[in-house]
Amino acid sequence: MDQFEEDIELFARMQGNYQSENEENFFRNLEYKQKYEVTACNDLLVWEKENDDLIYFVREEYHEYLVGHGYDEDDWEEEHVMKLADALAVNLKPLGFERDITLWQWLKETDYKYVKYNRNYDKVYYDGERKTFLPW
Q1: Is the pTM of this model over 0.90?
Q2: N or C of the chain: less Cβ packing under 10 Å?
Q3: CB atoms inside a 10 Å sphere around CB 130
Q4: 59 contacts 33 by C-beta, under 8 angstroms
């Protein structure tokens, strides 16, 4: 799949400049996914129920992303972007997060520990039971 020039440059710039093994895994996984894996059901990369900050990060199709904050329909805000470079630059404060921080800064701060690479957005486990996940 064709990628946006900004993402190609981002992946090239990051090679050999990772701050941690988790950061390397993040960029290598997303580069591969953007090139070779379409996601019909979306990839729930970060689930708001698994972090106290209520941040979520979803990949759609090849290289579209949703970045959001909140838990339920009365409380969540999100931004849709067309490439990873833009997703990482999303400021979380306008989405309701208490601090002025980008998604990338938050991922680095948490050392990418909330990122999961093989989780479909529509199939999430609640209390060990498989349920359909609908964010609305």
Answers
A1: no
A2: C
A3: 9
A4: yes
Residues 6+ apart with CB under 8 A from 101: 91, 92, 93, 109
Which residues, in sequence order, are bridge partners of residue 126? Answer: 129
What distance in Å separates the CA atoms of residue 51 and residue 60, rounded to the nearest whole number?
A: 21
Q: What does the alpha-carbon distance between residue 5 and residue 117 come to, in Å, rounded to a whole number?
A: 23
Residue pLDDT, tens place only, 23-50: 999 999 999 999 988 887 789 999 998 9
Q: Please give the backbone phi and psi of residue 40, each rounded to the nearest 5 degrees, phi first.
A: -70, -30
DSSP codes of every residue in 39-74: EEEEEEEE-GGGSTT-EEEEEEETTEEEEEE-SSTT
How many CB atoms are closer than 10 A to CB 124? 16
Tell me which residue of 65, 87, 75, 58 sits closest to 136, measured CA to CA.
75
Cβ–Cβ < 8 Å for 5, 34: no
